[in-house]
Amino acid sequence: MGRPPQDASQRLARAHHILDIAGDLILRWGYDKTTVEDIARRAGVAKGTIYLHWKTREELFAALLRRERVEMIIEVRRRIREGPATLRELLRLLASETLSRPLIRASVLGDSEVLGRLTRQKRDRTAGAELDAGFRGYFDTLLEHGALRSDLSSAEHVTTLASVLYGFLSVSPMMPAGYRPADERLAELIADTVGRALEPGGPTPAADARAVARATLEYVDAVVEAARRKLRVSLGSEESTP
Length: 242
What we know:
It contains 12 helices and no strands.
């Protein structure tokens, strides 16, 4: 039972099956209480089989979170292609998808009940990955076409955006029930606040609006490919690069 399938597609299918089980268990019990033995038993494989895919439990859960991010950004891409492809809509969709996916939400919010001692590590990595995925280049394009305030640099725009996004997501769970908006409304508030803080105001010329839409779609495509590449490395279907 511990021997790897000879066929690469079978090996990949087995890896995804193991990740399915791991995701279910971590949401039920939390990371600290979920062992490799638990996952192996539920997945119907030997413990050693799991280590054929990932050297450590941490690597397994890193693969799980990477898969969740791929699924999330693919859904964001699908929805934003339906229009409008603007920064506000991109932020609304990212926030909405984050809030609707328990593992992503736990990772972003540093939920210790779910991620346990991985909380700080995963939260820091998530923030860095999102900001390193090309936001500054995307914002440079938005600045060029007058879609952002010209009195702020692209770095300042990104800092403002991240502060609004993480601020709303972090504060909402702390609010009394009567002051806590529904997830979809919270996503709308995040997008509206970012727009009010960063957009220059006034109508955008049609040519610039088209350029912004193209840049937004290209950015999302690039994020999808970067996320898929990281997942392929975690699944052993692509070599990591220094």
